[in-house]
Amino acid sequence: MKLLILGGSGFVSGRLAQIATAQGHEVWCVTRGNRPIPEGVHALTCDAHDPAALCAALASAQLQWDAALDCICRDAASASVDLSVLPAFTNRLLVISTDSVYHPAYKRVPQDETGVYLHDGGYGSSKRQMEEVFLDAGSQVGCFPEHSRQPDLIARMKRGEPLRLVGGGKFLIHPIYVDDLCRVLLESIPVSTAFNEIFCIGGPDIVSNASYYILLGEILNVPVTIEEIPLAGYLEAHPQFSGHLCHRAYSLEKLRRTGIALPGTPLRAGLQKQVEWLLSLAR
User: Fold this and answer.
1) Where does the pLDDT of residue 236 fall: very low under 50, low under 70, confident under 90, or very high at 90 and above?
2) Contact 126, 97 (CB under 8 A)
3) Residue 283 pLDDT
4) What is the DSSP string of 157-196?
5) pTM of the model
6) Residue 26 has what DSSP assignment?
7) CA angle at 263 for the pair 23 and 241, rounded to the nearest 5°
8) Rounded to an integer, what distance in angstroms lies between the CA atom of residue 101 and that of residue 18?
9) What is the mean pLDDT of residues 226-244?
């Protein structure tokens, strides 16, 4: 297939481009050109959130794509750009959103694709507004709070520094290995039962924040000390973390019904690969 990726220099988008290329697809990436993109990928340079610039960049390629995959769609305005520009170049669009769209006070365990959504003007709220536009028509290791995607997290753990976790790390999370996410995205392109739908996705393991870091410590062969941050008053002091001060475990039943193979990489195996990759970058 000929695939168009909006993004391509980030962690998820770059890995998506690599996997798609390895599968034999021909890939074009739209980026600002500030960071390198994977080898074997065609570069289209522009601001993907500027409709005129995006249209001009896509027109310059003089072709039609089998599908577009937007890894950087951030809000309703970005979604509107996609809908105004992309139909002239492709008839299939897949967009990555976030679990932060769900209101933490009303989340279920496991959460399915229905629920109460955030409308507080923050990140999750903006992503939900993006989803609604379509409906109407992060990396480093680590998890919230307070050590999400910290570039020095592994070094801090090796130094034996304690990890500060709200509520002692009691909240559940549902991690997914990046390669599994990319595979599901690519396999869903021709699946008609996935058209015009939103799907929750996660890996095979649901664990607490504390268990996640303890497992990371085992992989690094270092002891883990957890320093509990009292939950009381934390959300009021840090409203930006509202989408993470709750359980984040999801039902994959809707995705299962499409016939697409569910993510299967165990958390330990995925973390092991991620740590090896991060350590290789530091050599």
Assistant:
1) confident
2) no
3) 63
4) HHTTPPEEEETTT-SEE----HHHHHHHHHHHTT-GGGTT
5) 0.77
6) E
7) 115
8) 28
9) 84
Helix (H) or strand (E) holding 238: none
**Which amino acid, residue 117?**
Y
Examine the pLDDT at 133 and tell me if it is beyond 50: yes
* HSE, side-chain direction, 13 A CA sphere, residue 148: 13
Residues 38 and 27: their CA atoms lie apart, in Å, by: 10
Per residue in 155-181, is it b (16+ CB within 10 Å) or e — as a string? eebeeeeebebbbebebbbbbbbbbbb
Confidence tier at 138 by pLDDT (50, 70, 90)? very low
Distance CA 66, CA 70 (A): 14
Could you tell me how many residues make up the chain? 283
Using one digit for the tens of pLDDT, what is the confidence trace for 89-105?
Answer: 998 999 999 998 999 88
Q: 30: closest CA among 3, 63, 66, 11? A: 3
Residue 190 clears pLDDT 50, i.e. is over it? yes
Measured from the Cβ of residue 78, the count of other Cβ atoms closer than 10 Å reads 21
- The mean of the pLDDT values for the chain is 91
Q: Strands across the sheet with 42-45, in order? A: 42-45, 26-31, 2-6, 67-70, 93-95
State both tokens at 53: 């610039």
3-class SS at 262? coil
